[in-house]
Amino acid sequence: MIVCSCNVLSDHDVRATMHSEGGPARNPGEVHRCLGCSRKCGRCMHTIKNIMNEALCGAAERRAGS
Questions:
Q1: Contact (Cβ atoms closer than 8 angstroms) between residue 34 and residue 6
Q2: CB–CB of 8/2 below 8 Å?
Q3: What are the CA-CA distances from residue 9 to residues 2, 43, 48, 62, 65 (Å)?
Q4: How far apart are CA 28 and CA 51, in angstroms?
Q5: Residue 24 in contact with residue 64, Cβ under 8 Å?
Q6: Are 29 and 49 in contact (CB under 8 A)?
Q7: How far apart are CA 28 and CA 22, in angstroms?
Q8: Residue 3 contacts residue 14 (beta carbons within 8 Å)
Q9: pLDDT band for position 59 (50/70/90)?
Q10: Every domain of the chain and the residues it spans
């Protein structure tokens, strides 16, 4: 799913930045920097935050279940 139409970023792109070799992105601004682009209109920020929160919660649940 495309979450940033200005930079054509998908939800998969956002999740990938949370596991990047240069260190995990911690906020939407870092997601854009990791992907080599910049924020433009800002409409994607809320969606990117939600994707990041879901990924973090899912990781925490997997660790707790191990």
A1: no
A2: yes
A3: 6, 12, 10, 26, 31
A4: 10
A5: no
A6: no
A7: 16
A8: yes
A9: low
A10: 2-65
Strand ranges (DSSP E) for the chain?
2-4, 9-10
Which tens digit of pLDDT belongs to each residue from 1-46? Answer: 999 999 999 999 999 998 877 678 899 999 999 999 999 999 999 9
d(CA 28, CA 46): 9
Instruction: List, as own/partner pairs, every contact residues 20-29 make where C-beta atoms lie below 8 angstroms and the sequence separation is at least 24, other chains included.
Output: 25/52, 27/52, 28/52
* CB-based contact 48:12 (threshold 8 Å): no
